[in-house]
């Protein structure tokens, strides 16, 4: 198989973005050929951290690639189209390209997240919704009836809920309003039920929960969808933040390869550890964009986790893993792929987590790239860059950054898969 | 750490620490931008703000690091305290828990910060005095025992916020001046008058 032909395209042209600010300094630093080389090099550096990679999984992802390359309409998906999708994968790929009509997210996200199977009958859906509701109610009553055990963590959650998205109309309410109570209940039920012994909680979690609380009128469906979103993400709740050291380091590696000049600048400013992007990784850049924009980002994160060409193992020597198995297998099964036999990585002495938020990494890169010329020109220090992003929250050119992030992801997924197919041949990019 | 910058005569790094929800971010926004946000968000990771002040003939940039009050992201702890010239440890006068945590914060700064770094203890939210849980005398005694200055502030009312930062900066300059005689020429210290300099409550105690 030949390398997917995006390498011959001029990246600037393929963006079709008219804003001159955008096509600017950031992109000009790397031409498309260099970009492919760089992505490949980045892929290699990630691969070194990947313990195993089975051929059967590779084949499944080739299937994704084929689906991914098919032409897609740019029209956002509506719930009336749900029946036309044959698989969750197909729905996901269409969503990646076109997004979902905002009023229809409530009905489509449960399918996207796998809470409802795509082919569920209306009567089964009613039964499942009822089951989810009774389960949620039971879990909620469990922590409500045992407040002593959970007092301190519930207090912390309450303090956070009290400061979550209060600038939005939905949460501009008093603390006894149903919206506020719903956010508190869903957050507390998740921590009480899905985290062993309330052992993990990180401030900022309620920022993630609020997305689901706003989209879903039903508290139990918000909880069920949050739970799916958080699969394999438990490590982010560890306030010691080892998961983020790894994520920040990955972003540093990506910049080092894609934009060495900027990386050298960051190094000289004691910022190459990228600690100032901690918030970006915890919240999938939610605080950088407006609430509505961040819903679109979360939607894309959901899909790209499904599509991520390769799970990357990042080692967390100090992290205690959740008991459930790595979900790569279950994910693939739920997408109705052919059988596969090999075990996923993660059984070594080191503890590992399948890192699938490659899209968040790329979006972070593009957000930084948007301003890199300005940063270098003004010789901003790390605190000054951090201050800049706090003040610029919600004012970024979202559509362009999203498009660039998606482009990078598309390149990554196709290049990555091509590598698997071509590794027997002379792969000369590195 | 006090560094010499081309644009400024001095740049100093200050850190704000204390439990979650005691008002660190609002003290920062009040001091640097004269703003109070009742809809403020939980700080995640670290945040920064700067303010330039005039001390005598010297122009000084204060760079203030604000952080989440929860157990700190480990990788950030070192970066946070490294080179800090001074710290404000903040508690909420309406929260005994936040006062009880002061010892833990002191321990952390003594472990990670430079030896002898000046610290000011701040009891915030004194506008809510009807809900007070920490008596002034208790806080004063604690401060005295630990050789800290103590001041009570209200970021909401913009009371004593300026003073709290000024106490800290004065201490830093004084300790710095002992080893760098060129700075001494700018003493006695006169801060630019910005907001609440003249507003001092009786409960504001300087040890």
Concise structural overview:
The complex is a heterodimer of chains A (430) and B (207). Chain A has 430 residues and is mostly helical.
What descriptors fit this protein?
heterodimer; A: 430 residues; two-stranded antiparallel sheet; 57% helix; globular; disordered C terminus; B: 207 residues; 7 helices; 7 strands; 32% helix; 23% strand
Question: What can you see in these coordinates?
Answer:
The complex is a heterodimer of chains A (430) and B (207). Chain A is mainly alpha-helical. Chain A is 57% helix and 2% strand. Chain A has helices at 11-15, 25-28, 32-48, 55-69, 88-98, 105-112, 122-144, 147-161, 178-194, 205-215, 219-229, 242-258, 260-268, 278-282, 291-307, 328-334, 358-369, 372-378, 382-391, 398-422, and strands spanning 312-315, 352-355. In chain A, helix 9 crosses helix 10 (205-215). The radius of gyration of chain A is 21 Å and the shape is globular. Chain B is built from seven helices and seven strands. In chain B, strands 1, 2, 3, 4, 5, 6 and 7 form a seven-stranded mixed β-sheet that branches. In chain B, a hairpin with a 6-residue loop joins strand 1 (2-3) and strand 2 (10-17). The longest helix of chain B is centred in the last third of the chain and has 19 residues, at 161-179. The two termini of chain B are 23 Å apart. Residues 184-207 of chain B have low confidence and may be disordered. Chain A binds chain B through residues 156, 159-160, 162-167, 202-204, 206-207, 239-242, 244-245, 248, 273, 275-276, 278-279, 282-283, 287, 383-384, 386-387, 390, and chain B through 20-21, 39-50, 63, 65, 68-76, 79.
């Amino acid at each position: 198989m030949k390398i997917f032909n995006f390498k011959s395209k001029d990246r600037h042209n393929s963006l079709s973005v008219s804003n001159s600010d955008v096509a600017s300094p950031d992109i000009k630093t790397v031409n498309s050929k260099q970009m492919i080389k760089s992505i490949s090099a980045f892929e290699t550096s990630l691969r070194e951290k990947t313990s195993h990679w089975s051929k059967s999984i590779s084949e499944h992802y080739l299937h994704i690639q084929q689906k991914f390359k098919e032409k897609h309409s740019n029209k956002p998906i509506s719930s009336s189209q749900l029946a036309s999708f044959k698989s969750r994968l197909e729905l996901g790929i269409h969503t990646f390209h076109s997004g979902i009509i905002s009023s229809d997210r409530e009905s489509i996200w449960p399918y996207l997240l796998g809470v409802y199977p795509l082919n569920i009958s209306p009567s089964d859906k009613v039964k499942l919704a009822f089951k989810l509701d009774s389960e949620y109610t039971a879990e909620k009553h469990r922590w409500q009836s045992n407040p002593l055990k959970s007092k301190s963590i519930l207090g912390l959650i309450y303090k956070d809920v009290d400061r979550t998205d209060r600038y939005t109309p939905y949460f501009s309410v008093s603390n006894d309003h149903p919206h506020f109570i719903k956010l508190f209940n869903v957050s507390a039920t998740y921590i009480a039920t899905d985290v062993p012994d309330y052992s993990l909680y990180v401030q900022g979690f309620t920022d993630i929960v609020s997305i689901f609380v706003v989209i879903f009128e039903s508290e139990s469906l918000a909880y069920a969808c949050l739970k799916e979103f958080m699969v394999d993400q438990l490590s982010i709740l560890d306030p010691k933040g080892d998961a983020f050291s790894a994520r920040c380091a990955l972003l540093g590696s990506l910049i080092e390869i894609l934009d060495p000049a900027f990386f050298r600048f960051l190094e000289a400013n004691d910022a190459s550890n990228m600690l100032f992007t901690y918030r970006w990784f915890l919240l999938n850049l939610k605080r950088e964009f407006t609430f509505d924009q961040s819903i679109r980002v979360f939607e894309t994160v959901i899909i790209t986790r499904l599509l991520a060409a390769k799970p990357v193992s990042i080692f967390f020597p100090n992290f205690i893993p959740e008991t459930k198995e790595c979900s790569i297998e279950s994910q693939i099964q739920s997408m109705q792929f052919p059988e596969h036999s090999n075990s996923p990585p993660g059984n070594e002495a080191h503890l590992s987590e399948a890192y699938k938020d490659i899209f968040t990494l790329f979006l972070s890169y593009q957000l930084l790239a948007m301003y890199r010329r300005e940063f270098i020109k003004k010789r901003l220090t790390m605190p000054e860059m951090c201050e800049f992003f706090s003040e610029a929250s919600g004012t970024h050119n979202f559509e362009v950054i999203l498009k660039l992030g998606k482009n990078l992801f598309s390149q990554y997924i196709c290049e990555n898969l091509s590598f698997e197919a071509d590794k027997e041949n002379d792969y000369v990019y590195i | 750490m006090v560094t010499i910058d081309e644009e400024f005569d001095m740049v100093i790094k200050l850190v704000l620490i204390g439990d979650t929800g005691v008002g660190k971010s609002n003290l920062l926004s009040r001091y640097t931008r004269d703003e109070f946000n009742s809809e403020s968000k939980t700080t995640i990771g670290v945040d920064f703000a700067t303010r330039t002040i005039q001390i005598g003939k010297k122009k000084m940039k204060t760079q203030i690091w604000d952080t989440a009050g929860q157990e700190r992201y480990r990788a950030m702890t070192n970066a946070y305290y490294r080179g800090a010239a001074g710290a404000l440890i903040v508690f909420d006068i309406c929260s005994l828990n936040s006062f009880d945590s002061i010892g833990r914060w002191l321990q952390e700064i003594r472990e990670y910060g430079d030896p002898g770094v000046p610290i000011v203890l701040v009891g915030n939210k004194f506008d809510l005095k009807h809900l007070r849980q920490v008596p002034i005398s208790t806080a004063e005694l604690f401060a005295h025992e630990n050789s800290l200055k103590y001041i009570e502030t209200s970021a909401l009312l913009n009371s004593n916020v300026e003073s709290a930062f000024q106490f800290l900066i004065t201490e830093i300059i004084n300790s710095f001046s002992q080893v760098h005689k060129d700075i001494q020429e700018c003493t006695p210290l006169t801060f630019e008058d910005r907001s609440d300099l003249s507003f001092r409550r009786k409960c504001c105690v300087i040890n």
